[in-house]
């Protein structure tokens, strides 16, 4: 009976995916069709847990084939523009809108599937006989959140005012005839006390690790493409939730929006620990006093003086230098309103929309590690983890092959040995926090039934020096430079997205393999300790990438030349190394099993499927105004050009698709860092 259910589910899944493609072209996109999407996920879940019959395997492969063909525009020539060939229909199925989503991409599909799995786990009834104590507290927090709209508005407004009063006075809340005490406002002390009480990073960040203290830029926020719309939203929030008069709310919202733009303008998306500069307290004082006191911020958050044994690092110094330029130019009132609004945003209630969506978002933001651990325990079976570890080891082996090959002989033995040591030392960790004792972590957390705001404040106050993570879990691996490890998000354990036991290994190496290889490439990008001749040889190859990517065009516009080539170089290394690993796999595969490396109703060879899988992970669409605005603010290469740039440098791609010399995907010169061809 169980096998029969799985067979029926597989048959339905193929039909649903075909319907998704048709419906997407006709009336919107899969990302905005939750009912259809959840039905697909329900079938996938049933199939993934059971049954390996040949019939079910074929149906699952048919469903993946249907998905990949839906995104393609096969009438185009792959050697002219491989991104358009691979993703030409993505925008028809998943179009970006003027409102939301303003951008669509494959990572969103992963994220929505992952969110649904988290929601299913959290909505299971609490059971003290089964659930760990920490899980019971998380479920109690979530249950209290579901009732937040029952709070009368006057009670909620008074609670917000009490939160403001913990840290001073918000100018927009001054009573008529009451003068706001500007002389008493100290923005550094205010954000430090907020950080110490609730763990919130406003304008500055403090992150404490066992090895060091990092101070500097908070998590990157991006300027709002629609500033007037953002200001209108803030205005209505101030009126409704705080009772601010409309005229004052209008001017205050514009000031807050301007401040947001100023703060975000020079932020960079750099993980803590990467490119951080060691500092002493004296050095920080010399850099930023008398405009603002960064040492004071650290000491107020820690509630103790810095001592000589503290290892202090400055995170993104360019951001702190930017603060010097504009902090003195804005009024204390504008500064204070921005800080207090940023604080209250974390306690904001959504009075419209889905209560479940709001509460799930809060749970993800405040309990990210525990939720990831719940998903890991539910879906992280031994076979899945073993498969991923095998890919990781093959990627590492391919990196070693590359560095030990003759094509990397421009690099002397000493630096090359250092790179090999770094590759060998870097490990993979599925970021499900299996080593965390969550019972101990949440031991002192006291919650109250149905009292959501109390519970929200309690959770934020609990372990407040621990930096709160983003609301959205990562959907791509990341490199932890401090611990020398690549972190694999639990979201990537989901079957039947990037990989599956039913799919050709080509898809696994083309997507998951290149993602892992990209982060491993970041582990060897620090060349600051190399000798002069090695550095000059490296700079020559780096300059090739700068010139090449500056010649790429998207929507008729050239990509601006940039000195930030680390991501582009990592892309090139990733696809080269993962392709090499896949080639090794094919060489070891029995000839009788080669047919398993193709998909039904697709003429692509196994090696061509590798490249198609790689390109389709980067399929995206963005609303034109949003795209143009973001292009001015970020330094990353657009997805389409990431695909075109990396593959045009790879001779194996040109061979597998028979791209003639001079075709757009086989242009010269080609840029390589450590090797030209390894297969």
TrEMBL record:
Keywords: Hydrolase, Metal-binding, Metalloprotease, Protease, Signal, Zinc. Its cofactor is Zn(2+). GO terms for cellular component: plasma membrane. Its main location: membrane. PROSITE patterns: NEPRILYSIN (PS51885). GO terms for molecular function: metal ion binding; metalloendopeptidase activity. Residues 78-425 form the Peptidase M13 N-terminal domain. It is found in: Cell membrane. SUPFAM superfamilies: Metalloproteases ('zincins'), catalytic domain (SSF55486). One of its GO terms (biological process) is protein processing. Residues 479-673 form the Peptidase M13 C-terminal domain. Residues 1-28 form the signal peptide. It comes from the Eukaryota. InterPro entries: MetalloPept_cat_dom_sf (IPR024079), Peptidase_M13 (IPR000718), Peptidase_M13_C (IPR018497), Peptidase_M13_dom_2 (IPR042089), Peptidase_M13_N (IPR008753). It is a single-pass type II membrane protein. It holds the Pfam family Peptidase_M13. Belongs to the peptidase M13 family. PANTHER family: FI07649P-RELATED (PTHR11733:SF238), ZINC METALLOPROTEASE FAMILY M13 NEPRILYSIN-RELATED (PTHR11733). This is Endothelin-converting enzyme homolog. It comes from Drosophila madeirensis (Fruit fly).
């Amino acid at each position: 009976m169980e096998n029969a259910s799985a067979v029926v589910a597989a048959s339905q899944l193929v039909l649903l995916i075909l319907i998704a493609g048709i419906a997407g072209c006709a009336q919107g996109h899969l990302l905005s069709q939750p009912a259809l999407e959840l039905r697909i996920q329900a079938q996938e879940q049933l199939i993934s847990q059971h049954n390996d019959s040949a019939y079910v395997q074929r149906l699952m492969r048919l469903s993946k084939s249907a998905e990949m063909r839906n995104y393609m525009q096969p009438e185009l020539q792959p050697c002219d523009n491989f991104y358009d060939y691979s993703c030409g229909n993505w925008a028809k199925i998943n179009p970006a809108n003027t409102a939301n989503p303003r951008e669509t991409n494959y990572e969103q599909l992963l994220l929505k599937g992952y969110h649904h799995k988290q929601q299913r786990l959290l909505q299971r009834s609490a059971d003290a006989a089964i659930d760990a104590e920490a899980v019971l507290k998380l479920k109690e927090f979530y249950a209290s959140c579901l009732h937040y709209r029952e709070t009368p508005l006057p009670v909620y407004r008074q609670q917000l005012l009490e939160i403001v009063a913990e840290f001073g006075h918000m100018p927009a809340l001054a009573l008529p005839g009451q003068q706001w005490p500007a002389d008493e406002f100290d923005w550094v002390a205010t954000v430090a006390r907020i950080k110490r009480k609730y763990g919130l990073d406003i304008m500055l960040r403090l992150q404490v690790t066992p090895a060091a203290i990092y101070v500097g830029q908070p998590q990157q926020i991006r300027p709002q493409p629609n500033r007037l719309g953002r200001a209108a939203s803030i205005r209505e929030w101030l009126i409704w939730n705080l009772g601010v008069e409309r005229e004052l709310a209008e001017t205050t919202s514009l000031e807050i929006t301007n401040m947001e733009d100023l703060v975000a303008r020079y932020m960079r998306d750099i993980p803590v620990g990467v490119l951080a500069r060691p500092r002493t307290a004296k050095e920080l004082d010399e850099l930023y006093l008398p405009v603002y006191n960064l040492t004071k911020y650290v000491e107020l958050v820690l509630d103790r003086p810095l001592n000589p044994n503290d290892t202090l690092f400055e995170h993104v110094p360019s951001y702190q230098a930017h603060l010097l330029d504009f902090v003195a130019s804005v009024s204390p009132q504008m500064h204070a309103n921005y800080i207090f609004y940023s604080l209250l945003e974390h306690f904001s209630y959504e009075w419209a929309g889905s209560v479940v969506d709001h509460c799930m978002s809060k749970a993800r933001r405040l309990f990210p590690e525990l939720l990831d651990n719940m998903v890991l325990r539910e879906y992280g079976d031994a076979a899945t983890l073993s498969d991923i570890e095998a890919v990781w080891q093959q990627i590492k082996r391919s990196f070693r092959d590359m560095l030990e090959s003759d094509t990397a002989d421009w690099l002397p033995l000493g630096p090359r040995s250092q790179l090999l040591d770094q590759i060998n030392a870097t490990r993979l960790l599925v970021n499900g926090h299996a080593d965390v004792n969550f019972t101990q972590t949440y031991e002192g957390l006291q919650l109250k039934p149905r009292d959501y705001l109390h519970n929200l404040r309690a959770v934020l106050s609990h372990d407040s020096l621990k930096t709160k993570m983003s609301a959205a879990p990562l959907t791509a691996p990341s490199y932890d430079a401090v611990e020398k490890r690549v972190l694999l998000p639990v979201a990537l354990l989901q079957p039947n997205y990037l990989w599956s036991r039913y799919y050709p290994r080509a898809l696994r190496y083309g997507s998951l393999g290149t993602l892992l290889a990209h982060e491993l490439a970041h582990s060897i990008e620090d060349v600051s300790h190399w000798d002069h001749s090695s550095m000059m040889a490296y700079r020559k190859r780096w300059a090739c990438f700068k010139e090449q990517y500056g010649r790429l065009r998207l929507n008729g516009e050239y990509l601006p030349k940039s000195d930030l080539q680390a991501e582009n170089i990592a892309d090139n290394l990733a696809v080269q190394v993962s392709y090499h690993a896949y080639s090794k796999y094919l060489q070891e595969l029995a000839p009788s099993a080669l047919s398993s490396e193709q998909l039904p109703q697709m003429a692509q060879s196994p090696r061509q499927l590798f490249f198609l899988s790689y390109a389709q992970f980067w399929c995206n669409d963005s609303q034109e105004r949003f795209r143009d605005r973001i292009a001015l603010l970020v330094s990353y290469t657009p997805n389409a050009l990431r695909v075109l740039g990396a593959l045009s440098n790879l001779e194996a791609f040109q061979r597998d698709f028979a791209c003639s010399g001079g075709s757009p995907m086989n242009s010269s010169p080609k840029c390589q860092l450590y090797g030209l061809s390894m297969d």
